[in-house]
Amino acid sequence: MRVRPCRASGAGLLKNLFEIVISKWVTGETAADGIESWHEFCLRVERGIAQVLGDAPPAASAVIFTSAGPIGATGRQVLHLSAEDTLASVLDVP
């Protein structure tokens, strides 16, 4: 893995590192035993959303508390985005 020089510090450094790591995970450039792939993660999120929707009575409201990852994965499904487009849309949020 080639690491770009970075002059950022603090939050900027963390943001840069996050973008590098998450980009490699989403595009499938890296894998590790015991760590689910981006594709597997998206499927798990889809199954969770389907379970909540299936368990809710018709016309009922449901609330899900989550983080940015499942929100991005759900946005990918709803908007029919590629992994790369999903990543770009998530990383573009200030």
Write the layout of secondary structure elements.
Elements: H1 11-26, H2 38-55, H3 68-79, H4 83-91
How would you describe what is shown here?
By secondary structure, the protein is an all-alpha fold. The longest helix is centred in the middle third of the chain and has 18 residues, at 38-55. The protein starts with 10 loop residues before the first helix and ends with a helix. Helix 1 runs antiparallel to helix 4 (83-91). The chain has helices at 11-26, 38-55, 68-79, 83-91. The model has no long low-confidence stretch (mean pLDDT 83). It has one domain (11-91).
Give a brief description.
With 94 residues, this protein is an all-alpha fold. The chain has four helices and no strands.
Strand residue percentage: under 5%
Principal-axes shape call:
elongated
Q: Order of helices and strands, N to C?
A: HHHH
Work out the helicity level: 55-70%
Strand count, sense and barrel status of the largest sheet are: none
Task: Compute the number of helices.
Answer: 4
Number of domains: 1
Number of strands: 0
Structural class: mainly alpha
Radius of gyration: 16 Å
> Which regions contain 5 or more consecutive residues with pLDDT less than 50?
none
Measure the end-to-end span. Answer: 27 Å
Compute the average pLDDT. Answer: 83
Features:
single chain, 94 residues, elongated, mainly alpha
